[in-house]
Amino acid sequence: EPDICHELLGHVPMFADPDFADFSQEIGLASLGASDADIKRLATCYWHSVEFGLVRQRSSFADANCTDDATATTVKAYGAGLLSSFGELEHGCKEGHFPVLATLENNNSTQSE
Hints:
Blueprint (H helix, E strand, L loop, with lengths): L1 H14 L2 H14 L4 H16 L2 E5 L8 E2 L4 E5 L2 H4 L2 H8 L20
Antiparallel strand pairs: 1-3, 2-3
Helix pairs in contact: 2-3
């Protein structure tokens, strides 16, 4: 069952980290009594991080599969939706086919869908 793979391969390892578990709980607590607009922003933040998060790591070497040579960084997946799906993972990290990556600076992650 794909959903079980998603939960076991994607979310369980993340929730084993106390900091991540606290972060996820804080998002849930922040939603209590929040406006619909705030809940949408929280959900978008969760989607772009916990579900389909990618991070850039500065590197001094080329990684065969996930190096964006233009910025000398390695793109790594940590979102559960990426880690549990070969197709999504390939889309997120395939050399020469990187998706548009946005930063979490200035709270812009909650503005896109």
